[in-house]
Amino acid sequence: MKKLILLSGLVSTVSFAAQPIFHPIGASSTLGSVTNSRALSTSFSNPASGYLMVNHKANDSFRFGLIGPIGIGYELGEVDSLIDEIDELEDILDNGVSSTAEANAAQAKFNDFLQEAGEKGYAKATVAGAAPFFPIIYKSQKYGAVALDFTFAGVGKLNILDDTLTITAGSGANASTDSSSYVQSAASATVGLGYSNSIWETGYGDLVVGLKANATQLESTRTVETLDSDVATEIEGDASSSAVGIDAGFLWVADNVVFGVTMANINEPEYDLGSLDNSDCTGSRCTQLNNLITGDGIATTGGIYVAEAQTTVELSLSLANKQLSLQTSYDTNSVKDVVGDEYQWAVASLSYYGDSNFLPGLRVGLRQNMVGTELSYANAGLTFFKRLNLDVGVALETIEVDETELPRAGYVNLGFTSAF
User: Fold this and answer.
1) What CATH fold (topology level) applies to the domain 2-417?
2) Model-level pTM?
3) N or C: which end of the chain has fewer CB within 10 A?
């Protein structure tokens, strides 16, 4: 349970990055990495989108966020009741077993469990959103649009480094294992400054280009700790670093068609993950712990996270005076997030945004990670009074927890923004 509390704490602290790959912000979780002027949170994707977010037909010059959006999410590996099984194992490690039969049963069960958990068990918690009143977009019909945003994100992931469970059978038997938890967490705050403008206008459409700089401060922590609290051993490392990432994008905007390309992190900024400090850890227990870390390929020194460049294409088709839209986006290459998970999203969605303040806006979508976990999600969202946005998503794949089938992943996003 203490591992679950730790992961929950990462979310509750509202750790502070622009449109994190592991948790898209707001309505983008349903719509994808597309530009939809009715959903302000989609401006975080393509740097050219700011130009389309202000309604000049209504003589507007500004558009801004109000509260959020903010969202939380979770993801679990393909191991049933992972946290419950860990709790039961820790109880045996703390209290031992009372008979030979109980000892044999515990060894048979938990050695199989530990091997499975080490291969594919994990628990992941995420948070993402925008600070109040952001983004702030100012558009001049003559000079283009300037967008300022302040976004935040946090992620925590628990993995198991497995080793065998040893039990000395008999009355008052003791149980021990060098199996350990590996917890990674990262929190970032990003200030983004972007500029976009129409550079070519024809009778068939307009070409809008955009450029954006994202200044990010990243705090990261990595901890390896034995599950056996009686012989608790911990190796920990943390780091703080900052870098600037450069995004570029363009949109071809016609009457009922928007096509765009986004190139994120063109310069591939690097962040320090810190070293796992084992200098104060000595003895046979530490030797085994270091062997587990090395065997899992975890870098103990010089950990670096590279925010790899990623290109995304988007296409939107609109009908009914642009109230009904079919949208799709696709990442052309995969990248890893700060805890090492691989993502390449493909998204298709359908949305309706009417002009009434009373009839809700509706959106539904399907999201698929083409690499890594290859999880797929069903997504849905509602917009109330043209300003209050609620989006939820659940994975189509399930696991069993307490004999109940639950989605392996899910998230919810809520925000209140100015209307188009």
Assistant:
1) Porin (2.40.160)
2) 0.90
3) N
